[in-house]
Amino acid sequence: MEPRMNLAANDFGGKFAKRFGNASMLVLQSTLPRTTQELVNLRVSQINRCGWCVDVHTKELAALGEPAVRINLTAAWQESTVFTDAEQAALAFAEEGTRLADAPPGVSDDTWQWVRKHYDEDQLAALVADIAMINAANRMGVMLAQKGGSYAAGTYTT
């Protein structure tokens, strides 16, 4: 199945894609560790079943030098020993921030305190933005029927 449309190929979509990309670049340039960003993006993309985004973030993690075991265990991070406490806090925050309707009130106070223990205010702001952006990207990818498999690492990071 081909993608339903190329969002960037029309006037409005192109303007939107440019601004969306600029916001994403701001997160990439933050002090939030890049590996944490990519782990969060991968996990949220797995939850949201966005094949395109799973492809992007597995390949970006590999390009960063992440071992296959960490990439492969991201889906089961809670049952794994390969993630730091800070990464686990970010992954928990990302999951709760993604599954808002599944477990009211959304992000628990315990998870918020856990993530605050590991990240400063700027990093927390970047993490909130990252989770919001990847959820939006996932929704666009799924709505437009974008398929994974053809992404080349580094395409969106420069």
TrEMBL record:
It comes from the Bacteria. Gene3D superfamilies: AhpD-like. Pfam families: CMD. It comes from Nocardia yunnanensis. InterPro entries: AhpD-like, AhpD_core, CMD-like. Residues 17-96 form the Carboxymuconolactone decarboxylase-like domain. One of its GO terms (molecular function) is peroxiredoxin activity. This is Carboxymuconolactone decarboxylase family protein. Transmembrane segments: none annotated.
